[in-house]
Amino acid sequence: MKVSDILRVKGNTLYTVHPDEPLVNAVRVMAEKDIGSLVVMEHGDLVGMLTFREVIQMVVSNAGQLGTTLVRKAMDDHPLTCTSETDMDEVRRMMLDRHARYMPVMDRRMLMGVISFYDVAKAVVDSQNFENQMLKAYIRDWPADESEAKAGSPLP
After folding, report:
1. If DSSP states are collapsed to H, E and C, what string results for the chain?
2. For range 29-51, the mean pLDDT
3. Residue 139 lies in a domain
4. 60: exposed, middle or buried (C-beta count within 10 Å: 0-12, 13-18, 19+)?
5. What integer is the mean pLDDT of 40-62?
6. Handedness of CA 21, 24, 30, 36 (dihedral sign)
7. The whole model's pTM is what?
8. Count of domains observed in the chain
9. Residue 126 falls within a domain, yes or no?
10. Confidence check: pLDDT of 145 > 70
11. The CATH number of the domain where 10 resides is what?
12. Domain carrying residue 93
């Protein structure tokens, strides 16, 4: 399974923010859209990720206030990325190694989407459920014993 499989199911709605936007505006968008991350774009390029983790860290470092803080000060300016052709096993490993909950999907310099750890976990569970259904169907069609299999077979 590849990242493109998740993006195909997930859809292509993206939420972005400019690094010089006030952090309070970005937090408002995250709350209104019920999303955990925003991709930070400047001049058409990915320059960072803003997640609830960075927001909480900034609130704590500013004694509970966001004030006039800009997104640029809070964002992760070296986000983990993948491509739509990255294998899901590799994505899981990367996300676990970096404790990343969100990962932008890039095609060269073009942002294709964002996948979350939830998206990855759901894809794995869905894949396992499908595989289990197929195995159960296969077992259900299994002959009761070898004599039945031979009786139904045209070969001696």
Report:
1. CEHHHHHHHHCCCCCEECCCCEHHHHHHHHHHHCCCEEEEEECCEEEEEEEHHHHHHHHHHCCCCCCCCEHHHHCECCCCCECCCCEHHHHHHHHHHHCCCEEEEEECCEEEEEEEHHHHHHHHHHHHHHHHHHHHHHHHCCCCCHHHHHHHCCCC
2. 95
3. no
4. exposed
5. 95
6. positive
7. 0.76
8. 1
9. no
10. no
11. 3.10.580.10
12. 3-120
pLDDT at 131: 78
Residue 93 forms part of a structural domain: yes
CA nearest to 20, candidates 51, 42, 37: 42
Tokens (6 digits) for 93 = 């490993």
CA atoms within 13 A on the CB side of 139: 6
Q: Per the structure block, which two tokens stand in for 30?
A: 């995250």
Distance (Å) of CA 19 to CA 13, 53, 69, 153 = 20, 16, 11, 69
Looking at the domain assignment, is residue 147 inside a domain?
no
The per-residue pLDDT for range 79-107, each reduced to its tens digit, is 999 999 999 899 999 999 999 999 999 99
Residue percentage of the chain with pLDDT more than 90: 61
